[in-house]
Amino acid sequence: MSSSYVILGAGVIGLTTALELRERYPQANIIIVAKFLPGDRDASYTSPWAGANWLSVATDNGRQEEWDRITYQKFKELAIRTAEVGVYAMPITAVYDSEIEDAGVLSTGTGKIWYDGLVGGIAMLGEERLPEGAKFGYELSTFVVDTQVYLPWLQGEARRQGIEIRRGMFESLDELFTAFPDANAYFNCTGLGSYSLKGVEDKSIYPTRGQIMLVESPKTTMTRMYFRSPQRVNKDTTYVFPRGPHNGVVLGGIRLDNDWSGEVDLELAEDIKQRCCALAPELGKPEDLKVIYHGVGLRPSRKGGARLERERFAEHLVIHNYGAGGAGYQASWGMARGAVDLLQKDSRL
């Protein structure tokens, strides 16, 4: 008899976990059940509102760096099929308004930027290329993700591989166990939903509100991403992420911890325009930007970092995979591998 697995949640973490499960257990019966699915627009369904790209925030010299390493390598494979998948190889210019020792980019124990070798080398910017007020910066080869293409691709790939996807809402783990009594394991990929999901009710998780806008691609073709911040993770972060050649440009942003509001702040939107145009000259003047839409997403942040853990409820095995905050995309494949590894007790991740 084949194994059966249920995944609760269909954001980037849930969908990626399902595909990792299928890769490792090709004969298994896999079901994704979720309140929100790709195409839905709700602030608490975080994945559609992400930038998104790969610029690691990990500095733990441990599992978080490993998650990001695995995902970078997977994105490298996926970028070959850009039109289909929505993952594009693109360099980024990142500048910081703090000295490098204070910017949150150096790995614990090594004192270095851990992904230097992974990305094929980091090129530090000379002073003449730093904007006013910036202390240091660098360029590297990485990836941008068009979430409006990538999320539906993940969903479609899951269905092509025989994974069933259902829309459904569960207020407790007990309801999930009752609905799917024969599952060998249940994967909790509910993100911010784990705050209120009965049986979990993790009060270490909290929202980090973000706000972005998608604008039309400028006349000047954009061939790189831009990032500026006092530290790698900071409230006042500015980023410009082109979504391929024709799918517009994402402008952001903000990081507001413990802010549950899903409403667009139009005053903040104007500030984002100003900051992004100052950072990326290709955009032109703020007043000339043509906004396609504004978006607000609530990142599932967690005190102590993401939860990747197995938990036994009588005869039911639950594997928790949530709380990546703003790193969901760039850690997704590594976290999925770690979650599936947890089906075996001796997992390292």
UniProtKB/TrEMBL annotation:
Protein name: Putative D-amino acid oxidase
Bilayer-crossing regions: none
Known cofactor(s): FAD
Lineage: Eukaryota, Fungi, Dikarya, Ascomycota, Pezizomycotina
GO BP term (any one): D-amino acid catabolic process
Assigned GO CC terms: cytoplasm
Family named by the database record: Belongs to the DAMOX/DASOX family.
GO terms for MF: D-amino-acid oxidase activity; FAD binding
Limits of the FAD dependent oxidoreductase domain: 5-341
Entry-linked Pfam families: DAO
Keyword Oxidoreductase belongs to the record: yes
Residues engaged in binding D-dopa: 239, 299, 326
Keywords associated with the record: FAD, Flavoprotein, Oxidoreductase
Amino acids binding FAD: 46-47, 190
